[in-house]
Amino acid sequence: MSILIRGAEDFLSSARTLETPLTPDPEAFLKEREAASTFHTEEVPLGSLTNWHLGDRISHSSGRFFAIEGLSVRTNFGPTPQWYQPIIVQPEIGILGILVKRIHGVHHFLMQAKMEPGNSALVQYCATVQATPSNYQRVHGGRSTPYLDYFLDPGPRVVVFDQLLSEHSSWYLYKRNRNMIVEVPEHEEVPAADDFTWLTLGQLRGLLAQGNRVNMNARTVLSAIAYATPNPSAGVAREPDGFHGEIVRSHRSGASDDALASAMTWLIDQKAGFSLDVKRIDLPRMAGWICDEQGIRHHEGRHFRIVGLSVGATSREVGTWAQPMLQPNPGNVVCFVCRRHQGTLMFLVQAMAQPGATDRVELAATVQSTLGSYRGPRDLPPLAEVLDCDRSWVVVDAVQSEDGGRFRHADTRHLVVRIPDDQVIEAPANYRWMSLGLLNRLLRLGYYVNVEARSLMACLL
């Protein structure tokens, strides 16, 4: 336990360090690495993809990477009791790992400037290692994955965080990745390879506030970071000011064993109360969807499309490739509502059932929605009215990309709305107020906090 607490103190010090001589200008580094390579992406017919077979399912000729199948869903969660949809099936468990090291007295994170074909801003910071077994076993015949051994065999290094966590459960079926933070001793040399650089949490905070600079896979790892009491020996002798100070205090509050037990009992009640019957079916059997050589799309143009993409990138393990991509309708939004209760900043979360969730129900943000998929105002999710709140209540507002390796132009507006302490919120029974400390503790237990909520938590660093 002392290792985690000491690490949390160091994370707070790193979060308040806004500059480092190792990377004086993180924006300039991104632009430099983007200029050092050439990139090309082009939407092409799904039936033209080399090494991919389009039939009852979409699959790669190697039998690896991922497939796209049809899904039949029945549930008592939400307004729609039954529907059909395509879904990505990727049973491989990838590694999302970040190396951290104390440099000049401050913890730095080794981040990679990486091109992903689906990103609106193609090159963004990602984790030190972001790779599936198909990638790092080099099924594609490309280059090896740098720094992989630090996570496959950490040895005497400190594993600060290591947990299997879910991915986008509306678009993936039972997808999990291993999220890791590994601390390297100060005396161990870790040279930064091309496209890699060391950043402080303070620099990452600044990039997250701007949006579309830190990719989804890095955000899910960063969401595991928690703050503890400042460490005077590190030169941090006082509480942070303003909203950041409230975030730190929320990380330290409400995470007792009793609070955890109460929250888990409530969440188990929610899981028991919601039914979710999911069946994998052939793509042509999906009612309401058109499947042909051009692509897969909803007959009303709602939700998302499955498109083909031709990609070229000189900085990737393979120079050229083609693959299917899921392209959602615009209007993705994820929003936390928070307010102070008895001196602690609390966040309103919901228990949400999603068809691809490993354990049926996970905690989600107050609002999680693709607004472009709704027919009208009556279809909007509960509490969607907070999206039109007084602008003075908004404390976080940035557009972030989702997994650019599987999703094309999937940009999600990340909002945190702090309402007045006396503001009354009428929420359904599957909603509950929680501190960041409690959310972080649940996150560390596995499949309790969904990836959209974790992404928003990372923006609160």
* Highest-level CATH class of the largest domain: Alpha Beta
Overall mean pLDDT: 91
Unreliable segments (pLDDT under 50, ≥5 consecutive)? 1-5
Q: What is the domain tally?
A: 2
Distance between the termini: 21 Å
Q: Strand count, sense and closure of the main sheet?
A: 7 strands, mixed
Number of helices: 10
CATH topology of the largest domain: Nucleoside Triphosphate Pyrophosphohydrolase
What is the share of helical residues? Answer: 10-25%
CATH superfamily of the largest domain: EvaA sugar 2,3-dehydratase subunit
| Total strand segments | 24
Structural class: alpha+beta
From the alpha carbons, calculate the radius of gyration and give it in angstroms. 22 Å
Global morphology? globular
Assembly of the depicted chains: single chain
Strand content: 25-35%
- CATH architecture label name of the largest domain: Alpha-Beta Complex
